[in-house]
Design a protein that fits this description.
Helices cover 33% and strands 35% of the residues. By secondary structure, it is an alpha+beta fold.
Amino acid sequence: MNLFKLIKAYWRGFVGGPDLHHSITRRFLLEDKQLSINIPDSNIVALPNADDKYYPHTSLTWFNEHAKVYDQHKYVHVYTKNWMYMPPIALFPSSEYGMLSCQLRIKQLNHINVLDKVALSHYVTQAYIDYHYGPDGTNTELRRRKVERSSQRASPWTPEELEEQVAISIDLQGRQPLAPAIIKSFNQTDWIFYSEVRNNSHSHNDFYCLPLSENSFLEVEFAHRVDLSHKYKKWAKHALESQERIIASVYLDELPQEQSIEHSVN
């Protein structure tokens, strides 16, 4: 690192993160549309993602064949990019401040009209809490542990005491209701935005959703992984500015009919 870059790094408080001065445009074919997005350079060496791939996002068969499931999220992965934030001079191993990740994915829903942004806004936040209070959810598991602990006590908690213990456990370790989703506009495109946050962690995930059809939508997730909580303020603003610059670079352009047909056949 030359002297100028070292001085700049000390002034900013970190090195790394998305390089907003150098980026590459990635393009993906979504049936009759072409998705383009500018992805800043990264300080992480990784295997290249697939590019210029065809994604028939309205096809239920295609979606079920390729979809992954994580918590309440069922999606088809499109693209991922990661950026590490580090101290200007790393004096110790594992001294990274944290990492920002950007992932593009396609989701499908068949019980609401995805083009209805009010309905979609309600769904994305309600699905989170429904999952975590459901059979496989974090909050359900925390309640089970408290019930088990109460049964092992010489004097089990009363129902009121049990509920109080469960509430404390969820507040400290569980998943809390999310703030309502809102509309954020970039380049005259309205995105549904919501954030998965927890009371006990600076790490969080921000989501931007853009309807593609009545049953499918594009979701762009920005995961803020905070490794050193006392250093998060140093790079939080840059990470937020970076993700909004990336979202503002997203464009969906209509493809000529013959071109979309050609890609669907191939």
